[in-house]
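Researcher: Structure for this, please.
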Amino acid sequence: MRATTRRTSRPTRTDAVCAAAVDEARAAAAEVADTETLGAYLGCDADDERVVTHYFACGNPGYIGWRWAVTVTRAPRSRTVTVDEVVLLPGPDAVLAPAWVPWTERIEAGDLGPGDLLPTAPDDPRLAPGYTGADETPEAEALRRISDELGLGRIRVLSLEGRDDAAERWYEGAPGPSNPIAQAAPAQCATCGFLVRLAGPLGKAFGVCANEFSPSDGEVVAFDHGCGAHSEAVSPAAAAALTPAEGPEHVLDTLTYDDTDLDLDRG
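Model: Predicted structure, token format:
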């Protein structure tokens, strides 16, 4: 049986001639960099056979931790070094800009201003094809004219995923019960006369406030949201007019007592 040997990659051997070309590398870096910010020599790395990259510190305050990299090489059996490139690269401790994020992932609620356009992706999971869809056949066009008269002419409508996302966002946000103004409300929106219920499945948990004095006027609110402008809220004047018989009785604790330390100035 024939034995086979497994070849393993060896680390690149640093070429002595290229590694010694520090002065040539600094001269090349000085042609590109500002000589006042071209700092000390930081060492070199072997990139390939007869290819070495020399590093010099960058003193520019706008590039903290960056370094000038000068790559040099030489031909076989030649003692002359040639400069391949000079670039400014970040070092291990360099200050870098945050990773680039596409605008579709950066945009947030409230960023859209007057005149701005926010295109919706064709495969947006929040939307589903409407009654007629986007078919351009004559039959679809004729059906679309009829559906427009019936109010069914939208190309896309809210999908189940889009509806659930909206419901969760509303309920967990300002229109929900965790809002501080809802926590201090005398009653919930479900019992308020100014609540206009939404149509469809969302109407089982949400409505629109129609009270001009409410901070939620014209906005979607959850049934267990609330504010001080509840239709059945008791006014301070009405509360003050309550007779003792109508108001709550005082409760006296006759079973326990409190120890109180008093610092009396007996003068």
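Researcher: Any notable elements?
Model: Helices lie at 16-19, 22-32, 103-106, 138-149, 160-172, 180-183, 236-240. The two ends are 113 Å apart (CA to CA).
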